[in-house]
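Quarterly update from the structural biology core.
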Amino acid sequence: MGSSNLLIERCPREERARAMAIVYRGLGRGMRAALVEQALEDERAGRVDLSGLWIARRGGGGRIVGAVLTQALPGRATAVWAPRTTAAWGKGRAETAAALVRGTLEGLRGEGIAIAQAVLDVPVDPREAEDLAAGGMPHVTDLVYLRRSTAVPPPPPPSSSVRFDWRGMDQVGEEALRAALESSYTDSLDIPEIGGARSIDDALQGHRGAPGYRPELWRLGSVDGEPDVAAVLLLAAAADRDSWEVVYLGLTPAARGRGLGVQAVAHALELARPRVAAIELAVDARNLPAAKLYAATGFVPFDRRAVHLAVLSRP
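Predicted structure, tokenized:
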């Protein structure tokens, strides 16, 4: 079946059960029915939001032949899951899936969304990766997830006369942290494809929207007499684990290449050690300087996921 006779739209509430049954396609009938009912019950109870369901219809108003689940994220971003169709195999399945992704991205663009991202388990189901790429969300990189125990002290930083003075956002004010954060994005090696896609306000909203956000864990490192040298460390509490997450760690351009990243990691561990057992973070697999820093400070990988990305608008 060609994709030209498909209508892509947000799923009406009354058809969400049908759409979710397609999302769970591939599972046994009993399990699929139970998961659909649980999803609908969670929505009624306010635990999940299914308004991010998009569907493909055959013709102008025909039956649903595909569904994709999306979730709005703070800061004009949206998470996208791999599409599902009623057809299991064949060219028609692939065309429907790609058309569904394209139509969903167009709809999100019209709503003002700047970034759509999908994060797939590695190894990736080849069809999921192909469907996303054909629909306009190519694979751009892998995220490597790292963890480190807080019980073991970090290695000493390289000998240097420069030392960060760390203060919280309540001490320095949001504008100072905001300026350092914006500077740290310059020539960033963590998913550089999204550089400039969102305003600094969007980025701050995205960081604040991270699960476990606690403003007292947002820290700014500065150096007396060197106003261009700074580090931004944003930590968050993991909801279901005895750990904290490094939501963001960035150095301004003037601070890079001076061994100051070790100080930032040491400060994170100093804050976390009395409170949690571990610290976790994710890094772009292409970001070799960051990977080297985290390996040198005792982080070890525990997961890897593929990132598919579409930049829908830029300010």
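The first strand starts at residue 6 and ends at 10.
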